[in-house]
Amino acid sequence: MNIRKIVFYLLLIIYGCSSGPGKNYQTKNELPVIYPDYTGLSIPYNIAPLNFRINEKGDDYYVEISNEAGDKIEISQEDGIVKIPESKWKDLLKNSKGESLTYSVYVKKGNKWTKYKEFSNRVMSDAIDPFLYYRLLYPSFQKYKDIRIVQRSMESFREHYIVNNDAIKHNCANCHSFNRNNPKDFLIHVRGNLGGTFFLKEDGMKKYNLKTKEMTGGAVYPRWHPSGDYVAFSSNKVIQHFHTISKKRIEVVDLASSLLLYDVNRNEMMNIPVDSAKQFMDTYPEWSPDGKYLYFCRAPKIDQKKYDYESIKYNLYRVPFDPATRKFGSVQLVFDAAANGMSVSMPRVSPDGKHLVITYHNYGCFPIWHKEADLYMINLDDFSVSRMNINSDFTDSYHTWSANNRWMIFSSKRGDGLTARPYITYVDEEGRTTKPFVLPQKDPLFYTYFVKTFNVPELAEADVWMTPGQLKEVAYSDAIQAKWSDNN
Fold it and tell me: Where are the beta strands (DSSP E) in 362-439?
């Protein structure tokens, strides 16, 4: 190839990839319609590219993303699919901390370019945890044949399965839990003929049977004590109701529930003595960051043969705990939701101990089928309660905090009312939140065709290099039996 051809092809690459409207365009004082809606956000400086599609009819599209210093990314596309180069995006965000990115969108129809109203996103100086874990499953309540627990990088689109229940005879895998975003303490529960609770520690993974003859049910909804020495569980007797007329598909009801404490070092299970008269159903334990309080949800005990599930209302309580002696104090009411005719579930305390977020819904303790379920925040200085501005007209639940308190991810069904997607919001020191946005994907149309639901998102500061093969190997081993302790 002669020099002229080489120069020709180089010029073709340079100018062909950066073609745009130049100065010949008309303006339109309207924001472009894009999907997902990534306009007017506060974003982490280490988030993956916010790829989107321009939903405006045109023959050609041009996007410029720039910061206040004049650094910019230029993208030309014929189909309106905007995929931002990862390396350029990473550099732009790194140089834009505490500043705003401006997006300029141009659409060409025939020979005319139109520039839409610019929008911006604020790049926050607070990073989000680099990894997100979630359970992928079909939005069904009948089968759990195809379940995956996925590790997803928040800084890129890399992901891999840490659990694939194909490897464990399609047993149900659930209740993955970290100790305050630290995967050094990690457990997962498996139900079925290979069932057990699997603890991943520095010396590898081990399988335990935490159920003893003194317990009426298994151990679920695990929450690690900050010390790593204990795990609080609830033990629940559950029944499902299937609606034939109501717009709701299913109702999950606890017929009985109680709180349990597992001593990791001694391999001992014991009751958490908050209901000696057995008058209540206690569930959803959650520790304070200093480990001195255990929060939980409580409702009056019901008649298991005759009850109205819509009348079951859970309030939020807490009880003091001394980790040195494993002793608990007197129970304290935190939020009386029943007085408002409502119910609470899934309490999560921020790592700094200032705020607690609950799911707030009409009744019961299993809100993922409740369209009205919203997220509310409790200020732990004065126990004041407020509805968060991140809610939608559909189910919002399953919330998790970043280790630095500044970000929260929650599951929302706002897209189609059926499949839950992970949404991200910034939380400032006063507990105020910003417009939530869906977890970015490499293909911006991903959520329009992906039919699985994202369940129980958990942020983590490091990766868990567990593989489905490791889980399979341990699943076929004998479980270590936990002992019962009266803790006298």
Answer: 374-379, 384-387, 396-401, 407-412, 421-426, 437-438
Token pair 């009948």 in the structure block, residue:
142
Burial class of residue 64 in the structure, from the number of CB atoms within 10 Å of its CB (0-12 exposed, 13-18 middle, 19+ buried): middle
Cα(292)–Cα(27) distance, rounded to whole angstroms? 59
* pLDDT tens track for 83-122: 999 999 999 999 999 999 999 999 999 999 999 999 999 9
Burial call 305-324: b when 16+ CB within 10 Å, e when fewer: eeeeeeebbbbbbbbebeee
Domains and CATH numbers, the chain: 18-124 (2.60.40), 131-483 (2.120.10.30)
Count Cβ neighbours within 10 Å for each residue of 375-409 and write b for 16 or more, e otherwise.
bbbbebeeeebeebebbeebbbbbbbbbbebbbbb
**Concatenated DSSP letters of 444-488:** TTHHHH--PEEEEEEEESS-----HHHHHHHHTSPPEEPEE----
- Per-residue pLDDT tens digits for 191-218: 777 878 889 877 788 999 999 999 888 8
Q: Please state the pTM of the whole predicted model.
A: 0.91
Residue corresponding to tokens 């369209």: 371
- Tokens for 30, please give them: 């309207």
